[in-house]
Specification:
mainly alpha; two-stranded antiparallel ribbon; two-stranded parallel sheet; 8 helices
Length: 198
Amino acid sequence: MKKRIFDLILAMVGLILVSPVFVGCILMTYWRSGRPIFFTHDRLGKDGKIFKLWKFRTMKVNAQRVVHSCPEYSKMYAMNFKIPCTDNNLVTGWGRIMRKTSMDELPQLVNVLQGDMSIVGPRPIVPSEIKKYGPYGQKLLTVKPGLTGYWQVSGRNKIGYPARVFMDMYYIDHQSLAFDVNIIARTFWVLLTMEGSM
């Protein structure tokens, strides 16, 4: 209950503080590449519940079709479940900026308000990604995924998958309000330096 109150307060304050940036992202996305403004994707939540994760759209409108039809892109996505923001064939120019600065993830504050995510927690993964966690998959589903987390402040995309799993498990075993505050503080530094962005 304490964590939920913590999440609600931070999400509401966060939305108020970033509202000018939020509106700016909407206008820039529409101006540079039209609709849709937002991108939703199925993710696994607590107890295996599937929810729609919200992001600002950073990829071109036909990008998903290209990824699934091209063996090279399909292989790349299967490894990291993400396409590099430097790929001009798939990612828009404005989208690259949003990814580098993590502005594309601001709509996830709405996911926090809805109760599907926490401010701090393990990475929100797609359903097929659970196999990467092996015997730790069920443990991952005992908590809500986070807008930020231990992995995100420890190198992000520079870190391989086994280390990601370890970090998510470490967070679950050591979660506390103090740990969450520490991760949030480190998140601001990561955002300023754009360390490990992809």
